[in-house]
Amino acid sequence: MSRAGQGTDDLSGRHLVLPRTLCFVTWGDEVLLLRGAPDKRIWPNRYNGVGGHVERGEDVRSAARREIAEETGLTVEDLRLRGVVHVTPDAEGVGVMLFVFAARAQQREVRPSAEGAAVWVRRAVGRTRPGRRPAAAPAACAGPARRAALFRPLDL
To answer: Number of folded domains in the chain?
Structure first.
């Protein structure tokens, strides 16, 4: 179908989003977090899952696998879409559509990258970042049943 047929020939006034991926990779009872490099524009010295931009012509699942390999050197299995988060647009009207995945690592050894340091963190109720606990665990981390509900696969 042509751009005109899809209604994309004139994007003025249209809501635009940039597709990105975010993946939480597990190994047993650990989850891999990436501590952003200190010189990064987004999330410097902060922990997050692994992910990034979806390249032109790339589907989101392939983008998630590519980002995991680029940022950690890992190959993964059981890569599953767990949710989609719409981040509202900025002043220019461009938002972010974040495709959140979970996967299991096929090996534990990671390599560093320019994105930051990959760190395996033991999953525990109430943990907000490696080595630090909040005064009270948030409701979203209230117990095993609640955690299981948060990571239930989507029926697509």
So the answer is: 1
